[in-house]
Write a structure and sequence with these properties.
Helices cover 34% and strands 9% of the residues. It is built from 13 helices and 8 strands. The protein starts with a helix and ends in a 41-residue tail after the last strand.
């Protein structure tokens, strides 16, 4: 008896499944006929509104997809006009209204005077040569990202010729760590250059530890900085924030895409490109129009943010459509025409095709336009 009931139940279940499959097939056939005949293959585009989530609405609210704007930037593909505020209006607002110029940071004084700022790169320990170079440039670029120098090496060079008469000692940092920034500022640097900044979080770390409270979060240390800058008007502790210069480098496509949030970060003063690395990361030569568009994105974002703009490659001082806007570079000509002696210059991987005269390029054994 139980067996009969089981067979009967299985038969009913089977008939129900057959009916369900038949009904579904009929529905699919009806839909196919209504759409014009044969069934839709995988290559056909679904009807408007099909499969949309979020309450339907068809295609009326669909975004207009063009060539894309991640790399072209939010301000368009053309250079924005410079308004009456000029370059660096936000950077200028970081300086106390009571501070009396000139800055003892010569690079910052030239920036605020709307001049182009050049430097000399030092990558090896040589106090005498540093002191000579300091007479002829706006700032000295101490290379701590790619060189094997120690913090002690840099400290001894800065201590060899202290005071405000000469180029500002600035350091390209190995990272944005508080501990690294503390060492750099305690030994007397009054400018820090942060490479390969990718987003606003990294920019904020770079800026916040580079100045004393209440502007930033630099800790008071017992380094040599106060003795290096002894006798500056107002005292070192009270004028350091006004003279500090925080520079960030955009060297990847991610950095370019995030140029607005990086440039707008509180405490950032200057935005430059690491031109060689930006070329490597993007895959576009510096002569490629697409590479030029990356520079325009960075330039527009920096202008909108009220900061100063530049490039690591000194070849961008002239010959490029954006050269009139370049305010800050690595290397470049000296202020007074002094020519540094040859010092075992390495072969350069920099592309010297954009407005650079013969003989101008990577000086001082540094990393050039990287």
């Amino acid at each position: 008896m139980r067996m009969r009931r089981f067979v009967s139940s299985a038969t009913v279940c089977g008939l129900a499944c057959v009916a369900l499959v038949t009904t579904q097939a009929q529905r699919q056939g009806t839909a196919s006929t209504a759409s014009g005949g044969g069934g839709q293959d995988a290559s056909q585009t679904p009807a408007a509104g099909g499969g949309q989530r979020g309450g339907g609405g068809g295609r009326a609210d669909a975004p207009v997809i063009g060539p894309g704007n991640l790399v072209t930037g939010v301000w368009g593909t053309d250079p924005l006009a410079v308004d009456s505020r000029g370059w660096g209006w936000m950077t200028k607002s970081y300086v106390s209204a009571n501070y009396k110029r000139p800055f003892y940071n010569k690079a910052k004084e030239l920036l605020f005077s709307d001049k182009q700022v050049t430097s000399y790169t030092i990558s090896t320990f040589d106090p005498d040569f540093y002191c000579e170079v300091r007479k002829h440039y706006a700032y000295v670029w101490f290379e701590m990202q790619h060189s094997t120098m120690s913090w002690d090496n840099v400290a001894k060079m800065i201590a060899a010729c202290p005071g405000p008469d000469g180029a500002a000692p600035m350091i390209r940092m190995p990272d944005q760590l508080e501990s690294s920034i503390q060492k750099a500022t305690d030994l007397g640097a009054i400018g820090l250059i942060f490479p390969t900044i990718r987003d606003g979080n990294q920019a904020l770390d770079a800026a916040r530890y580079s100045r004393f409270p209440p502007f930033g979060r630099r800790s008071s240390g017992a380094g040599q900085a106060s003795s290096v800058w002894a006798g500056v008007p107002g005292g070192y502790q009270n004028t350091f924030n006004e003279n500090m210069l925080v520079v960030v480098m955009l060297e990847t496509l991610e950095g370019i895409i995030n140029a607005n949030e990086i440039a707008s970060t509180f405490g950032i003063d200057v935005v430059i490109q690491g031109n060689n690395d930006l070329s490597r990361f993007s895959g576009w030569a510096q002569t490629d129009p697409r590479y030029q568009s990356l520079l325009t994105v960075s330039r527009n974002a920096t202008l909108r943010a009220g900061k100063f703009w530049g490039n690591a490659g000194a070849q961008y001082l002239t010959g490029n459509p954006l050269s009139p806007d370049v305010r800050f570079v690595q290397n470049g000509p000296s202020i007074d025409g002094w020519t540094p002696p040859a010092r075992g210059r390495r072969n350069s991987t920099e592309e010297p095709t954009i407005g650079v005269p013969a003989g101008r390029g990577r000086r001082g054994g540094g990393a050039g336009g990287r």
